[in-house]
Design brief:
By secondary structure, the chain is mostly beta strands. It has one helix and 25 strands.
Length: 369
């Protein structure tokens, strides 16, 4: 799976937890590629022009990440990249971005094969004055679809300014979406859950004029705030920290089943959480053909949702870090077994001790009717 490029509009301070390589900076490029192998990053330092992009490609056999260091207003994180996977980020403001691999070097990890110490991305302006990418046209005043308070909507719009979030509470149907639009003049804001119930979400950093939409499949009350203003406290100013809420309730947003024939019941909650102890919850999920399943990592370690061998419509989430998610749509009825690829269990064949066997600690099943 190739991850969609994520727009990142933040100026990260040059904070290092250890000495970064003093590699000479090359001439600024519009775009750059950093290759990750099981021994480190290559190159470890790149310089790109404002609004350029950096692609991270994992050519190693293990899962690695590129995770920002320091108290960045909006940290960037590729999430766990499996072999052959790639993620690209656009950098919209000049600055120095330092990073390292979370699976090898951060959070108490120490992989002796991987060259920890991280890498650096330097973003420079193409001239004395940055190309003022015509101040993003202010999106049409996102008058949130004003249903009566508490009445679920299929879709809703939320506006973020430097003062806070409007409206403070949105009620939508399961399967509905919420779009957050940053209408501020200069600050980066986010919509980030303050807990893990029912499931965590994070829009990532939204620069002025940027927006992000999320679909909510699981009923419940999601409490959130802006990480840059209220969690990391990186933004100065008087942002109202809420808390703000998305309430998911009512009838699911789905197409009406055909009148003839007994259709399988609609499953409104198609979210599976992954944690470090129990693996997949629920372990077995029954859905209808055409529905999607979203896996969310609520643990602290990297996990995957990977189909067992033999399916023509195989899927692989790649490594998911904490709070990251992956969605896959099932179109053909059947029973699909899957596992997390980052917890292999090795043994030997009971009939031949020279044969090494491989299984997995965490396994799950999707039943498609």
């Amino acid at each position: 799976m190739t991850r969609a490029a994520v727009a990142l509009a933040a100026c990260l301070p040059a904070l290092l937890t250890g000495a970064l390589p003093a590699a000479a900076q090359t001439a600024a490029q519009q775009n750059a590629t950093i290759t990750i192998t099981d021994t480190g990053y290559n190159p470890r330092a790149v310089t790109i022009l404002l609004n350029g992009a950096v692609s991270f490609v994992n050519n190693g056999g293990n899962v690695h990440t590129a995770t920002s260091l320091g108290g960045a207003p909006v940290p960037f994180d590729t999430g766990g990249l499996s072999q052959g996977q790639t993620t690209a980020f656009n950098f919209g403001l000049p600055g120095t971005y330092n990073f390292d691999s979370a699976t090898d070097c951060l959070n108490g990890q120490s992989n002796p094969q991987f060259q920890c110490g991280g890498g650096t991305i330097t973003v420079v302006q193409p001239g004395a004055a940055p190309v003022a990418s015509a101040a993003p046209a202010a999106p049409p005043a996102a008058a949130p679809v004003a249903a009566a308070p508490g009445v679920p909507q299929s879709n809703a719009m939320v506006t973020i300014t430097d003062a806070g979030v409007t409206p403070t509470t949105i009620t939508i149907n399961p399967g509905g979406s919420v779009t957050w639009v940053n209408n501020s003049s200069s600050m980066v804001h986010t919509a980030t859950t303050t807990g893990t119930t029912p499931a965590p979400f994070d829009t990532g950093g939204l620069g002025p004029g940027q927006s992000a939409a999320l679909v909510f499949a699981q009923s419940g009350t999601y409490t959130y705030t802006s990480a840059t203003d209220c969690i990391n406290r990186s933004n100065p100013g008087s942002f109202g920290c809420g808390p703000y809420q998305v309430i998911v309730t009512g009838a699911p947003v789905v197409a009406a089943p055909a009148a003839s024939g007994a259709a399988a019941p609609v499953v409104s909650n198609t979210t599976v959480t992954i944690d470090d102890t129990n693996g997949f919850t629920p372990n077995t999920l029954t859905i209808r053909a055409g529905q999607s399943v979203t896996w969310v990592n609520v643990g602290s370690k990297v996990h995957t949702a990977t189909s067992n061998p033999g399916y023509y419509n195989a899927w692989d989430s790649g490594g998911l870090d904490n709070k990251q998610k992956f969605t896959f749509t099932f179109t053909v009825p059947g029973t699909y077994g899957y596992h997390s690829d980052t917890e292999p269990v090795y043994g030997t064949d009971p009939n031949d001790s020279s044969i090494v066997t491989k299984s997995f600690m965490f396994n799950g099943t999707i039943v498609v009717q």
